[in-house]
Amino acid sequence: PLTGPAGRLMLDERTNRDAAGAPPMDRQPVESSLIRSVGYAPTASILEVELAESGRVYRYFDVPYSLFEELMAAESKGAYFNDHIRDMYAFEEEGPA
């Protein structure tokens, strides 16, 4: 992948897509001590999670939309993420946002 400072994926200026061909993800801030923001690309079934403390962004692949909805509705987003997503899906780390 095309990476820039701190390992962050860079966008191709011609296509406005990252090296994997995905458009930039629009993440929503969430109330959580573990997670700063969450985004979802329904056409690719990709979930992006930005961690609060480190600022690192993780992109999880083949995540069903229903899991994204449940995560966003969960009383504890961190607990839901740890129990149902982390270590359950293939992922790549993008680096700090």
Notes on the protein architecture:
The chain is of the alpha+beta class and 97 residues long. Helix 1 (65-73) runs antiparallel to helix 2. The model is unreliable at 1-16 (pLDDT under 50). Strand 4 and strand 5 form a beta hairpin. The chain has two helices and seven strands; from the N terminus they run E-E-E-E-E-E-H-H-E.
What is the gist of this entry?
By secondary structure, the chain is α+β, with helices and mostly antiparallel strands. It has helices at residues 65-73, 77-84, and strands at residues 11-12, 17-18, 28-29, 35-41, 46-51, 56-60, 91-96. The radius of gyration is 13 Å and the shape is globular.
Largest sheet: 5 strands, antiparallel
What is the averaged pLDDT score? 82
- Judged by helices, strands and strand pairing, the structural class is alpha+beta
Q: Based on DSSP secondary structure assignment, what is the total number of beta strands?
A: 7
Cα Rg: 13 Å
Strand content: 25-35%
Strand order of the largest sheet: 3-4-5-6-7
Order of helices and strands: EEEEEEHHE
- For the record, give the distance between the C-alpha atoms at the N and C termini, rounded to a whole number: 16 Å
Q: What is the helical fraction, as a range of percent?
A: 10-25%
Q: What's the tally of helices? A: 2
The general outline is globular
